[in-house]
Amino acid sequence: MSDHDTNPANDDELSLPRATVYKLIAEMLPKDIACAKDTRDLLLDCCNEFIHLIASESNEICEKDAKKTIAAEHVLTALRELGFEKYITEVEEAYDEHRKQQTKDRGRKSSKLSQLGMSEEELLRSQELLFAQARMRYQNQPASQEQPDNNAVTPSSNST
């Protein structure tokens, strides 16, 4: 029996965010349809179980391939092997969209660097200078302003 089966504290760690799933349920249902809390909880449990099933199967496929990291191909193979072929197209589309967004985000990060108007070397030198200035200020502080060393042994804390 795993920790997941015996320890209720792990349920929250291995679960989708409840509020997010509730929000998705509300968005998917027509406005005139209400969903009971028990039903929402059951759907949440089903979603968690589905993800666990796909992750476990993907992990087994990954191990068979002698890989240490589960890749998208492992998940797609798991979906096929578990009989969820009808979801493959949607999953591939979502994965393609995710990759496009990741590429776009990387482009933004690199453009931020170029927008600073300084080369990486100049930024590094500037950072080192700022650290040196901060060190000097810290070292030149009067003793009364220095931060206490919480790890230092004092006579009162060393008595037995």
Task: Describe it.
- The protein has 160 residues and is mainly α.
- The chain contains seven helices and no strands.
- The chain is elongated, with a radius of gyration of 27 Å.
Mean pLDDT: 83
Number of helices: 7
Structure summary, number of beta strands: 0
Beta-strand share of residues? under 5%
- From the spread of the alpha carbons, the general shape counts as elongated
Report how far the terminal alpha carbons are from each other: 46 Å
Radius of gyration from the alpha-carbon trace, in angstroms: 27 Å
Relative helix content: 55-70%
Structural class: mainly alpha
Major sheet size, sense and barrel closure: none
Low-pLDDT segments, ≥5 res = 1-6
Gist of the model:
By secondary structure, this protein is mainly alpha-helical. It is 66% helix and 0% strand. The longest helix has 28 residues, at 37-64.
Give the SSE map.
Elements: H1 3-6, H2 9-13, H3 18-28, H4 37-64, H5 72-81, H6 88-115, H7 120-139
